[in-house]
Structure formats: C-alpha cells, structure tokens
Amino acid sequence: RVDRRQRQMCIRDRIDIAGICEPAQETGGDYYDMISLGKNRMAIAIGDVSGKGIQAAFYMTFVKGVLHSLSALILSPLELLNQLNRLFKENATRGTFVSMIYGILEADKRELTFARAGHNPMLIVRANGDTDWLMSKGIGIGVTSSLLFMKGTEESILKLDEGDVAVLYTDGITEMMNISNQFYGEERLEKVVKGVRKGASSSILNIIISDVKEFKGVAKQHDDMTLVVIKADSSVNK
Predict the structure, then answer these.
(1) Cα–Cα distance, 140 to 202 (Å, whole number)
(2) Where are the alpha helices (DSSP H) in 92-124?
C-alpha cells in the first residue's frame, strides 16, 4: 500500500518542506522521501519508476532501501545515484528504469546539492516572482552502465534565499489530463506556484494538488501524483 499522508518538516535555519503522494491505484511507482542526516542536513528524493502496479511498487521499495542505506555514507548525490544505478541495473528486469531527483539540503547554507537522473525539471520561483526550470543533464536509473551514467549526469547546486520556493514533482502532475485530453502542463504549474509563493510549503502544496484535481474534473487519474515543495522561510521556527 502507498502512504497517501502529507508530510511536512522544518529543519533548522528556516527551511520548510512538504510532500505528498496520491497514487492512481492501490499500489504505485512514485516515491518521495525526506531523510534526516543531522540537525542541518537532509536528503531529499523524488522518483518515478516505469510501469505501474505491484511490480512498480516493488522496485520503488528497492530504491527506498538503497537510499536509506547509502544516504548517510555517500554525501555526493551524483555518486549515490551512480551506486543506485549499478544496483538497480543488476537486480531489475531489463527495460525497467527510474527517473529521480536526489539531493542533499544543507539548511545552514540554504543550499541543495542535487543530481537529476532523467526526471522532470525542478521549478524554482524566487521571492520576487522570477521563475526558472532547472534542467541539468542526467540519465535515468537502470538505463545504462555506470561509466555512461557518470558521463551523462551532472551534479548542481541550488541556492535558496528568503522566500524562494523549489517544486519537485512527477509527471502525474504536469501530464494530468482532463476530459478534453489536454495536459495540465508546466505553464499552469508555474503560474499557480508564482501566485501562491508567499504561503507556507504545505499551503503551496495543497493549492497545487487542488488545482490539478479541479483541472482533471471527472476524468480518470491515470498516473500517480507526487509533489515536494521546499521553501526558505524564516517564520517557520518562530
């Protein structure tokens, strides 16, 4: 079974994080996690395995186990994903892969060091309303050898200032379809986050999910919806 509960965490030095997964079926292939690595450090992950149902959920459970085992030992997101890629490729059925963003958030610096393994780009909305889509190069987990994975994937650093918002999501958000077979899309997601960026992370998250469901209307949900919102907010610990 997939945990549908919303999670919210605050870590020192004014970082506010919320996440949720709403699967399309009883079991799903989406995954997000927030792994504490001490008072000022946290691992953040979001991923989507190819396929659906029990097999997809099984592989995501495998991914979760690897991340929890290695996150405190390997502080380079790129190197951790490289090890995950090696283990996944050795154990998964050929043709199965995982898209993922994995990063280490250092609260005292308000920096997220991350790697994007073939996943949807991260949306950044600055306090002043400026927006950016972070599309660092990366290859999906399980697609290729360790050598090619390391050559084709890069590690990046995101610096967050007061009021900035980072949104990580799976394609179940942007590719949600309504009864007219239209996609929700990145443009609408950006517009919504820009309009509600002054709220807390949980408020931003809930408004996005509500807007996606309103857009979907009576159409069927065909894919899992997973969302993580990170906000630099000095008010959360007051």
Answers:
(1) 29
(2) none
Q: Tell me what percent of the chain is helix, strand and coil, each rounded to the nearest 5.
A: 30, 30, 40
> How far apart are alpha carbons 181 and 220 in whole angstroms?
11
Q: To which H or E segment does residue 109 belong?
A: none
Q: What is the pTM of this model?
A: 0.93
Euclidean distance between CA atoms 180 and 57, whole angstroms: 30
Q: 3-class DSSP state for residue 114?
A: strand
Q: How would you list the strands of the sheet with 98-106, edge to edge?
A: 30-36, 41-49, 98-106, 111-117, 155-159
Rounded Cα distance between 231 and 199, Å, is 9
Helices (H), ranges, 71-200: 77-91, 146-152, 171-174, 185-196
| Helix (H) or strand (E) run with residue 31 in it | strand 30-36
- Residues 128-183: pLDDT tens digits? 999 999 999 999 999 999 999 999 999 999 999 999 999 999 999 999 999 999 99
For the ranges 8-22, 36-50, 93-107, 172-186, the lowest mean pLDDT is seen at: 8-22
Query: What's the pLDDT tens digit per position in 39-88?
Result: 889 999 999 999 877 888 899 999 999 999 999 999 999 999 999 999 99
